[in-house]
Amino acid sequence: MTSSNPMNNILQISEVHALAAIFILLTAINVFSYIYRLQHQLSSYIRYIWFYFLIFLVAETISFYIATWLWGILSFFVLREFFSLIDFRLQDRFGVVAAYLSIPFMMHFIHTDWYNLFIITIPVYSFLIIPFLVAIGGKEAEGAINSIAVIIFGLFLFVYCIGHIAYLSYYNIWMASVLILNIVIFDMSAFVIERRVESTLRRVLYSYIIPVPFTIVLTLSLAEWCALPQFHAIILGTIIPAIIIIGNFSLKYLASDLGIVKDNLHPGRGVIIYNIKSILYAAPVVLHYYRYFIGG
Questions:
Q1: Predicted local distance difference test score (pLDDT) of residue 253
Q2: How far apart (Å, rounded) are the C-alpha atoms in residues 51 and 65?
Q3: C-alpha dihedral over 40, 41, 45, 48, to 10 degrees?
Q4: How many other C-beta atoms lie within 10 A of the C-beta of residue 183?
Q5: Which helix H or strand E contains 195, and what residues bound it?
Q6: Cα-atom radius of gyration of the chain, to the nearest Å?
Q7: Average pLDDT of the chain to the nearest whole number
Q8: Helices assigned H by DSSP within 62-143
Q9: C-alpha 107: how far from its chain's center?
């Protein structure tokens, strides 16, 4: 048995302290926003960032198993919100139930590090099973393709993609933390840009150009904790804002079809989807980049 390295123990303690410090800071901001009734949209967003770091802190100090199921709870609520915005037929209920039941399977694969099943369960098995269950559900065929597409799309986006941030935290909790911090940098800059820039093209350009120096510096600063070579830290700091822009543009289009209004968000009417949208495209890309180049 090899002896433990004191420097590694010190580094690990420092990482836990850093996570705790971020969590305490976010808690203080949440309390402040509640007391002084800051803009609802911003205070709601901060609560979700707080929840992410609560999960990371639980994973590091208590149990990764518990943390994984916290991600599962988030997946359940966002999937339920998405389904509540869709007009399903009663006969589609078996497909909807199967989508919910996919969540515990995905979380089990993550906390047991069963990567091969994690990566294929929704794209392969759920894709095949859900049409079968919808077909069993009733005699009326009209609208079946739409129902199947909606169920699979919601499952892919709000369970599979969220599962990627959970799996990333399994490989390296600080890589997942850096991703969330980069998302915060991007979202805060976009929040300001949207209110000061009217041109859509300029908004897109500024949304990328302004946060990139900060995301690169942040990723480089925490590269050692993420086990990232500096070159890859620069690459990730550069591409994460671009991925978020692509994802947010796509989900904004989706939100318009669902009737989600950014300035009038309510529980069950898009508040969860809006607040987590930035991780949905970024998490899969960062996980697979990290796993391919750094190793899991």
A1: 83
A2: 16
A3: 60
A4: 25
A5: helix 173-196
A6: 20
A7: 85
A8: 64-84, 93-111, 115-120, 127-137
A9: 14
Comparing CA positions, the residue from 256, 71, 57 lying closest to residue 164 is: 71
Using the Cα atoms of residue 100, residue 97, residue 274 and residue 149 in order, give the sign of their dihedral: positive
Give the pLDDT of residue 1.
33
Closest CA to 283 of 188, 151, 171, 150: 171
Domain map (residue ranges) of the chain:
6-293
Predicted TM-score of the model (pTM): 0.88
Taking residue 257's Cβ as centre, other Cβ atoms within 10 Å add up to 8
Longest pairwise C-alpha distance within the chain: 67
- DSSP state for residue 264 in the 8-state scheme: S
Which tokens go with 277? Answer: 């949208």
Give the up-direction half-sphere exposure of residue 60: CA atoms within 13 A in the CB hemisphere: 22
Give the span between the Cα atoms of 40 and 27, in whole angstroms.
16
Of 158, 52, 54, residue with least CA distance to 106:
158
Q: How far apart are CA 281 and CA 240, in angstroms?
A: 9
**Tens-place pLDDT, residues 99-109:** 999 999 999 99
For residues 249-265, give the mean pLDDT. Answer: 77
Q: Which two tokens stand for residue 11?
A: 């580094």
**Measured on CA atoms in the order 40, 44, 45, 50, is the torsion positive or negative?**
positive
**Dihedral angle over CA of 270, 271, 272, 275, nearest 10:** 120
Q: What's the CA dihedral at 276, 278, 279, 285 to 10 degrees?
A: 160
Cα gap 245→249, rounded to integer Å: 6
Q: What is the pLDDT of residue 13?
A: 59
* Residues whose CB falls within 8 Å of the CB of residue 21, separated by 6 or more in sequence, listed in order: none
